[in-house]
Amino acid sequence: MARQSHFVVVGGGTAGWIAAFIIQDSARRKGINARISVIEPSSIPTVGVGEATTAAFRVLLKHFGIDEFEFFRKTEATFKLGIRHEDWRRKGYRYYGPIDDPHQVIQAPPGAPSDYLNVYAIAAGRPITDMHLFGPLLEQKKAPYARKADGSLIPLGPFHHAYHFDQAKVGRFFASKSKGVDIIDAVVSGVHRSPQTGDITALELDNGQKLDADFFIDATGFRKQLIVKEMQAPWISYAHELPVNRALPFWLDIKPGEEIANYTRAWAQDAGWMWQIPTQTRYGCGYVYSDEFCTLEQAKAEVERVLGREIEVRSDIRFQIGRLENAWVGNVLAVGLSSSFLEPLESTSIHGTIVQMMLFADRHLKHPADMTPADRDDYNTRVGRQVDDFRTFVNTHYMVERDDTPFWREVRANRIHPETRERLAYWKSHMPRHEHFPDTLFGLPHIQTQLHYPVLAGLGLLDPALARKEMDRDPKLRQFAREAYDSLAREYRAAAQQALGHAEFLETVRAMA
């Protein structure tokens, strides 16, 4: 019988279960005899917070053949079609960042440069969101589904949407789908390491069990139990350029009959910003702020003043923003919050876990004895670059006109990262292009121009004169882009008329059980 390798995931939750699923599936496809165990102690409660994802999560569900409608029912999930940014550029100004990409559905003329539709919209002074299917749906809080004459549901377009959900429920959902994964309800109380290599050889559990294994995934969240406490992995801080370091979470109930947002609301405040993420029964909310500029009491008072109601603060979360220098050390690989943490502005956390695990499984998964330092170096370089790109994108959101509070004045003056400034300087003389983002992840989903354009346009960081100059060089392409834009805008306005309201869609799906 082929030798067996034992992979142990320490910590369940969303990140741990995504890791277990992807490793198990890829090992089977590659013909690797792998045993997978997840150590998920019931004595450490998972905090249920509203969590937002990217479209990579839907790709994951489809890959594993998971029924999307069942997922909606079991996790209280809702649609996320984009982000609504309020009061960032200046107070009273808002813009949407839809996550679909119209370039996917228009056959570009031969030789057309990438992002030509975006360039046309900027040149013509027309809203980028109008040529997105998700644009009118975001404005009207509708689902990307219509109802056919026979009552069944039909998607309105080919685009992947994302989700909001209660992440504690998602961990349990994935656990319920696990086939052939050992689930161990225990706490890790000790670690055995090889005196020769320093690798972990076994875990002591508080139930008296000793668990031998070949490879370990650290999904212990902020505790970083294996990767930092045992393997001493160094941390790279992003605290300077991403200055919020504390969160005050709370809930707001959704009233019966109220339409449910299909977007993450990112609402800038005096010392940071507030998130509102809908599940089917309530909004998971929080104020992410900088404690250099605001105390917990002041933050709570500000939220209550802005919302016009009292809130019940559920905890006071302090966090370190940054990433591990190396997410894979020895035979331990960190995922999720053990590996990196950025403020939750662009839903990078679960997205990062999915892409990192797909990268590991595709390029480096083999019997742990056959894994090499070159495998680790390659993985660490690519994942480090991925998270640095997240950092630069999130930091770009702070290039604002606001200077009405000490926090915003400080951010504008001193907290913009050199890489952010470099990119923005380059985009003053060249419109942003897909090829400005090197593909270091072998085509796996990453933050590129499709997400940058709505943000850069929303913050007024793109030059219409530069876009017009570019379009003037190719009048045929400009004419093509104008017709494509008009056609998409018409088609998507009409589609939005057919779309179900978000709450009605969710009610329909719940009734299917």
What secondary-structure arrangement, pairings included, does this model have?
Layout: E1 5-10, H1 13-30, E2 34-39, E3 50-52, H2 56-63, H3 68-75, E4 78-80, E5 82-86, E6 94-98, H4 116-124, H5 134-140, E7 145-147, E8 153-155, E9 162-166, H6 167-176, E10 181-184, E11 188-193, E12 200-205, E13 210-212, E14 215-218, E15 235-237, E16 246-253, E17 263-269, E18 272-278, E19 282-289, H7 296-307, E20 317-318, E21 322-324, E22 328-329, E23 332-334, E24 340-341, H8 348-363, H9 373-396, H10 406-414, H11 418-426, H12 449-458, H13 464-472, H14 475-498, H15 502-511
Helix pairs in contact: 1-6, 1-8, 4-13, 4-14, 8-9
Summarize the model shown.
The protein is built from 15 helices and 24 strands. The protein has 513 residues and is an alpha+beta fold.
What name does the CATH topology carry?
A: FAD/NAD(P)-binding domain
Question: Span from first to last CA?
Answer: 43 Å
Could you give the count of β-strands? Answer: 24
Q: Determine the mean pLDDT.
A: 95
- Widest sheet: strand ordering: 6-5-17-18-19-16-20
User: Could you give me the name of the CATH homologous superfamily?
Assistant: FAD/NAD(P)-binding domain
Low-confidence stretches: none
Q: Which CATH architecture is right?
A: 3-Layer(bba) Sandwich
Structural features, described:
The chain is an alpha+beta fold and 513 residues long. It has helices at 13-30, 56-63, 68-75, 116-124, 134-140, 167-176, 296-307, 348-363, 373-396, 406-414, 418-426, 449-458, 464-472, 475-498, 502-511, and strands at 5-10, 34-39, 50-52, 78-80, 82-86, 94-98, 145-147, 153-155, 162-166, 181-184, 188-193, 200-205, 210-212, 215-218, 235-237, 246-253, 263-269, 272-278, 282-289, 317-318, 322-324, 328-329, 332-334, 340-341. The strands form six sheets. The protein has a seven-stranded mixed beta sheet with strand order 6-5-17-18-19-16-20. The protein has a six-stranded mixed beta sheet with strand order 10-2-1-14-23-22. Strand 22 and strand 23 (332-334) form a beta hairpin. The longest helix has 24 residues, at 373-396. The protein is globular and about 70 Å long.
